[in-house]
Amino acid sequence: MPIKINNIFKNIPDNLPDELTEILLSKGDVKIEKIVSKGHSSPDGFWYDQDKNEFVLLVEGKAKLIFENKKGSIILEKGDYVNIPAHAKHRVEWTDPENETIWLAVYY
Length: 108
Description:
Blueprint: E1 20-27, E2 30-37, E3 54-60, E4 62-67, E5 74-77, E6 81-84, E7 90-95, E8 101-107
Antiparallel strand pairs: 1-2, 2-8, 3-6, 3-8, 4-5, 4-7
């Protein structure tokens, strides 16, 4: 079987009215997604409460995360990563409105 080369920076539309999510790989208990945001955030009052752990790498851009049970926020910049335990309620408060924020999320 030939090995296919892909690029995380390809296939990003010029206009992003909605956040773009693309599953790059899903196998067993592991799923890897590319997420592209540009000024997007979680809806008011919405908290992610996921059944799986989530490792997030910010490949490009800037973002602000808030965790329900923690005071303050986390600012992520290009190259930063965080491991979010299952059921750690969190939300995306802000992403850079001027430039694409590209996330690599690994759910396990």
